[in-house]
Amino acid sequence: MTIRILPPQLANQIAAGEVxxxxxxxxxxxxxxxxxxxxxxxxxxxxxxxxKLIKITDNGSGIPKExxxxxxxxxxxxxxxxxxxxxxxxxxxxxxxxxxxxxxxSRLTLTSRTQEQSEAWQxxxxxxxxxxxxxxxxxxxxxxxxxxxxxxxxxARRRFLKSDKTEFTHxxxxxxxxxxxxxxxxxxxxxxxxQVRNYxxxxxxxxxxxxxxxxxxxxxxxxALRVDCEHNGLSLSGYxxxxxxxxxxxxxxxxxxxxxLVRDRLVNHAVRQAFAQQLQGEQVAFVLxxxxxxxxxDVNVHPAKHEVRFHESRYVHDFILQALESxxxxxxxxxFDGVPAAQGASEEASGSYIRPLQPQQSDSESNQIAYSETxxxxxxxxxxxxxxxxxxxxxxxGGQRVQEAQMGxxxxxxxxxxxxxxxxxxxxxxxxxxxYAQLMTTPGVTGQGNQPRGNHLPPMPQVLDGRYWLxxxxxxxxxxxxxxxxxxxxxxxxxxxxxxxxxxxxxxMPVSVKVDEDWQQTLAERELLIRKLGLELTIRLGQLIIKxxxxxxxxxxxxxxxxxxxxxxxxxxxxSDALVNWLVNQxxxxxxxxxxxxxxxxxxxxxxxxxxLSMAKxxxxxxxxGEQTSE
Length: 631
Description:
Blueprint: H1 8-19, H2 23-36, E1 41-47, E2 53-58, H3 68-71, H4 83-86, H5 98-104, E3 107-113, E4 120-126, E5 129-137, E6 142-148, H6 155-159, H7 164-181, E7 186-191, E8 194-199, H8 205-216, H9 218-223, E9 225-231, E10 234-240, E11 253-257, E12 260-261, H10 265-274, E13 286-291, E14 297-298, E15 309-310, H11 313-341, E16 352-356, E17 369-373, H12 375-382, E18 402-403, E19 413-415, H13 430-440, E20 462-464, E21 468-473, E22 476-481, H14 482-498, E23 505-514, H15 519-525, H16 527-532, E24 536-540, E25 543-549, H17 558-569, H18 576-587, H19 594-602, H20 606-613, E26 617-619, H21 621-630
Parallel strand pairs: 1-7, 11-13
Antiparallel strand pairs: 1-2, 2-6, 3-4, 3-6, 4-5, 7-8, 9-10, 9-19, 10-13, 11-12, 14-15, 16-17, 18-19, 20-21, 21-22, 22-26, 23-25, 24-25
């Protein structure tokens, strides 16, 4: 057979096979065009599940008369102009194929008017007739697209359509997805002349929670934890299921990248790993929106744009995991710590206090409990090391609000929830709460935030240069390194856990290293030791596969660290002290929060506290002052 160029109509129908899968695909493309045009209201009308009629009306910027015919041509778009634009896509559409593909398998009418035009114009295209006719029409500023008789000229494709009810369900599901990420848009949906959906613009958080309840169910909206975290150009916001709700919240799982709904295994892995301890084996509900530099993500990797590719996927994964783990950890702590606080107990030792707000008139804003930081603690946080993940707890409505303090130049993180009103519930006494705290504390394990925060903790010293605590002992001044303190706390934590065995964390992408001929024997002989360290290592096809590592090795170069370990344990089994020192050296001296570090230090026994505090270096300030006076 000879090679020849396909006719335009045939090429468009082939392209339609990728773009137009079912009526929901048509609505997706047309509504996204409306949003790219700056519309604030989009009305969707369908008949017979969209197979008979699809009509999209918006109040966007419209299309000029001279560009109407061009808009129905293949690879014609106003959203890209150069190859550089393809590397930084922020619009929904960019390929310029949707209208041409839809018009090749339906009877399409496009009516539009711009603000500058005195009258509207209408373009019409039908199936195999690719010629476009443009005539005057009456229409307000904006556009209306009608796609009638979908697949009328491709009977084979039409036979694959499901029932009207099934096709409507797909349309309704897609509308829910876009309504959650575009809270500023008014969406309506009519089916067979009857309005079935009306999502009004959500200008406040309370209004957005109502929309979230419409889409994800009231149980999810009432108990969800709010996430709002920024770090180094990445921003994650939205809501996640509260592990404390105890309610079935459905299968709401939506993730957006720069406003675009995507399905990503990396994100699902991060969410599952974050909830591994609280809801193991259960479906987790979440609505999360990730915003980042468009140069750092490629959205042009899937025909239907359902998937994206991150340039730094591991970094994005760890950012999402860290944000979600922080939200869940703080919500768990506050669910316990907030009980005595509701009775009026203050937390002056940690520099924060709890103050109930006055009830509001609005039902959606009533029964809220807000937490605020004292000015002294705010100044203290401003001087802390700008490490990622630093946050201070706050709470809203029933003990499910978590709020992170500002993280230096990186921004801040907030986690909040809206739940039922517990103000009238009978609260347990302080003695009962303290007894429960003792039961929930593992003997011999130090520093993991198990100690209830209260007035018994001394206030944290001032932080100098983000690296030192300034200790005052009578007339003596001393500097205690935060990094050294974190290292010593790490050592004690590892010593407490090592005998029982460390818990390994699965890697997002297993690391493979070319195997050495002696490693197979080493793995067999030291199997118990390797398990004790929380490692999961296998050999396959000449490669050592590293699947799990303890958290203390997560930031190390595993491709070199694990081979060094195998070489070390090959001839002898190291003593526990040697293993502890090795793990401490590999974990480094990183810490997330100076205030959390201080709480962990104060949670140690008095003797261990003094050992660490004795590491502080005394400042000879009196000698310096005397020298300056003598001069």
